[in-house]
Amino acid sequence: MREYAKDYRSIAAEKQRQRQSKIPKDWLIDAQKYGEATNLLQVPVTCGILDGVEREITSNYDATALSEKIRQGVWSVEQVTVAFCKRAAIAHQLTNCLTEIFFDEAIERARQLDLEQREDPNCKALRPLYGLPISLKDSFQVVGQDTSTGLACFVKKPADQNSALAALLLDLGAILYCKTNLPQTIMTGDSDNNVFGRTLNPHNTALTAGGSTGGEGALIALRGSLLGVGTDIAGSIRIPSLCNGIYGVRGSVGVVPHSGVRDLAVPGTDGVRSAAGPMATSLRDCRLFMKAVMESETWRYDSAVVSVPWRNLQVKEKLRVGLVEDNGIHTPSPPIRRGLNKATQLLQRSNDIEIVPLKLPSIKEIYQDLFQYMAPLGTEHYSELFNRTGEPAIPSVDTIGLMSVEGTTLRGFFEMNARREEAAKKYLQLFCDNRIDAIMMPVAAHTAVPWDRWANATYTGLWNYLDYPAVVIPVDKVGETDLADDVVHAKYGPEDANLYRLYTGPELYRDAPIAVQVIGYRQMDEALINTAIFADSIINGKE
Amino acid sequence: MREYAKDYRSIAAEKQRQRQSKIPKDWLIDAQKYGEATNLLQVPVTCGILDGVEREITSNYDATALSEKIRQGVWSVEQVTVAFCKRAAIAHQLTNCLTEIFFDEAIERARQLDLEQREDPNCKALRPLYGLPISLKDSFQVVGQDTSTGLACFVKKPADQNSALAALLLDLGAILYCKTNLPQTIMTGDSDNNVFGRTLNPHNTALTAGGSTGGEGALIALRGSLLGVGTDIAGSIRIPSLCNGIYGVRGSVGVVPHSGVRDLAVPGTDGVRSAAGPMATSLRDCRLFMKAVMESETWRYDSAVVSVPWRNLQVKEKLRVGLVEDNGIHTPSPPIRRGLNKATQLLQRSNDIEIVPLKLPSIKEIYQDLFQYMAPLGTEHYSELFNRTGEPAIPSVDTIGLMSVEGTTLRGFFEMNARREEAAKKYLQLFCDNRIDAIMMPVAAHTAVPWDRWANATYTGLWNYLDYPAVVIPVDKVGETDLADDVVHAKYGPEDANLYRLYTGPELYRDAPIAVQVIGYRQMDEALINTAIFADSIINGKE
């Protein structure tokens, strides 16, 4: 047996001990008390750790409303920060959603902002995210913190530079206070790894919290954060947004700075690029984030941004929305069909929205190429990272078949690019010919599924392949009436049938969130967010 | 000896006859009369083909001023179109600058626009390029016209679709009337090919018209067009702009729609992408073009655009300009040094511009990689195209060594990408640390050189590699005082010395234009154009 400089188990044990030490004793909950519960959403307010003001701050506002309160001086930045640190600590103890905890640094910065504010009352006016605690997926670098991405070989190597976005968010006035869990390889639908373990879904702990930005999903669902940032190369913002019943925006590539995010791909891998975006409890918070970022000089922070500015576009008063009921390879499960129907019917009742049924072409071929784009040189680089500390692949890496992807050649790579250029033309034409403002469709063929069963990203990956922005809007939750139906309803062959069988009815899936995604034109993120806010206002009666 | 379906010579002969037939008899000049002259700039107004109004229309305005006259109804669109068709015909007979001639279609469209205008006087208000004749590099597809790019194998295959930009320009009100010459392979500094032959430089016919957009360069220098469109992957807009003493803008990749431009690269080749941009007799015409394009919905025309809108940015009143005197591998020739000094001194006299001397890092390594990016799979695809009709490579293809580029692997390609990402960070830092708005530097180490001697693009290619926008501003012309100096002044070794020796003094180089290029931040095309217009107003006393 090979000898490792250090075995992953001891690295993980030490890392977990250190992480635990970052939670003040007074904030510890009796986790055993909640061991039997599957739905943990109420625990933060019932566990007795938060005082009345902290419950108020963390429970009753979205980031937009909270920002207003901070500007009005209702609460100091320190009060707000402490409240969210506490609630994040509770969320973590319930779901294992955090990787790096730096509450002390955050509270110290909050105090400084409060001091500055006393000396110059105008200083906050200029900073659109002033005083707002923002959580980040572990892959973003924050000075002094590890960026292990759950790989043992990267533990205890604190960053000496911020990711471009972390630097920008600080300049915009935000408070960074924690980073969140993700899958080994950052490629699966289960936020599980050998260093930090698995993040649980607070709606139903028997189900996955989703991935790869699953830590954010669980943290935000429990309101341990109101605004977090994920990345999405095949669905990694949208899948956990669906699983955890929150809003999420996959921005177009480069619109939100992405440089300095740890990416496990071979350096220089191009083709389909990961994109960053916000996850939140309201869609207007996603807008707050996107507007703040797109109004700033992102190009000074990151040499790889796409400089699409926020334009304060007029909101359209009449919308045409393409409706895609299924993607032609994976049949949506009964709750997903019900959720999409519900959203469609609500939109149809509006005089301002016209629904246009659509079919998406070439999904199977596109998804095959997307999977190859994920690892054009094969997956040896992952094995090499695992082998440094002897860690095994997590189960969900096997579920998606990642380690069996073989590399292609330069010619094969360009052939994929050429096919993608053709697909891009076809899809633009589909949008233009139908004069649609957006497409509405499922985020996946199913809700959150039991652990380690999330097998593909055919509903989400298409939009990464084409680089169209996409927004997840929660619609409902699985309830008593969502019965399983017969597998004969699976229309697309044996693999589809296997996936379809996963849904066994409301007993196992109780409270699993149901969502839709809304997709807009490439780089038209602002227009899409406007459209999605309009749709959300009808579906969920918000803003 | 191999038998070809058809030999390139017969294809070229037939194509040239057809082209010649597109010029009305009344517009033919006695070309022999000008066989001895090297400077042809005055011939269009002295040859007797243009009447007084046509001379006025084509000689005394830039496109911006002419557009105003058209809107005022001083001249009909037909009058303007006929005048430019005539003058383009003259320019072509002098320099062989045109490939496809479609004057009839253009004049027919002009009549239609005039008719529409009579019926609805407001129709022109909405179209920013209303009634303006615009010429296109041959590689842009125009319905009904060949897109041979000077390759015999592509002759007699008329396009059934417009390039995205051609479609957009028509929708913006422009008149398309001709396409222009370029080098075989679209990769050299000499616009020469086996189908159409060589374009001459109207300033000095002993020198190259530059490439690859050399036909536009010659045509615009002779005012056979006021506004043309080129493409630039290593300098192909800027080199002919320098050689022909005109303005040219290499936009950032994707800002000006580029889809449907014939690209001889293997389909799907990515890495360094070609960018389109305007060439004109004034910089404000380049702005007119860029503003019109960037204000339109380019993303509806082209699935590959980068949606950076025109923002009507405030023009900065104080500028910091980085001055790069040479690029560290090729020593500028005496006229280039004089031109840059002249521009620098003029700018320094302004209270509003601060000059910051700069050195550019890593040019040699960057240029090596750029050259590999031009043909990552090697150059067999060119040979294959040549072989279809038995045509040989043109001399300038040998000069640049294109056919000896060997392919790389997918891993090698990603390694190049990774080096480029690092270079991009370094260069952004150079710009930001020095707080510069732009860099000013030579366009090449030399002016236009004798035929088939243009050997590299080390001054221009850098900005394609990094995707920074760049503007060419003419500064002066070679005159009596521009003596050659000793080769000891060549600082960078034998290859530099060979290049340096090319400049033999004002006898051979008489009237060769001298220019500078001004480079701005990636995708900040609008801000760069503002900066360049300001610099131009000081250097050339224009707007």
Characterise this structure.
The structure is a homodimer of 543-residue chains. The first copy, chain A, has 543 residues and is of the alpha/beta class. Chain A has one domain (8-539): Amidase signature (AS) domain (Amidase signature (AS) enzymes, Alpha-Beta Complex). Chain A is built from 20 helices and eleven strands. Chain A has helices at residues 8-21, 43-46, 52-59, 63-72, 77-95, 103-119, 164-171, 214-221, 238-244, 283-295, 298-301, 334-349, 363-374, 380-389, 395-400, 410-433, 461-466, 494-501, 506-509, 525-539, and strands spanning 98-101, 133-137, 175-180, 227-232, 247-250, 275-280, 319-323, 353-357, 438-442, 470-477, 513-519. Chain A has an eleven-stranded mixed beta sheet, sandwiched between helices. Chain A is globular. In chain A, 57% of the residues are buried. The mean pLDDT of chain A is 96. Chains A and B meet through helix 16 of A and helix 16 of B.
Distance between the termini of chain A: 60 Å
Radius of gyration of chain A: 22 Å
Counting DSSP H or I runs of 4 or more residues, the number of helices of chain A is: 20
Assign the CATH topology of chain A. Answer: Amidase signature (AS) enzymes
For the secondary structure, the number of strands of chain A is 11
- Report the CATH architecture of chain A: Alpha-Beta Complex
As laid out across the biggest beta sheet of chain A, the strand order is 1-3-2-4-6-5-10-11-9-7-8
Bulk shape of chain A: globular
Class by helix and strand content of chain A? alpha/beta
Give start-end ranges of low-pLDDT stretches of chain A.
Answer: none
CATH class assignment of chain A: Alpha Beta
Classify the beta-strand content of chain A into a percent band: 5-15%
CATH homologous superfamily annotation of chain A? Amidase signature (AS) domain
Rounded mean pLDDT of chain A is 96
**Quaternary structure state of the chains depicted:** homodimer
The biggest chain-chain interface is: A-B, 42 and 42 residues
Major β-sheet annotation of chain A: 11 strands, mixed
Domain unit count of chain A:
1
Helix content of chain A: 25-40%
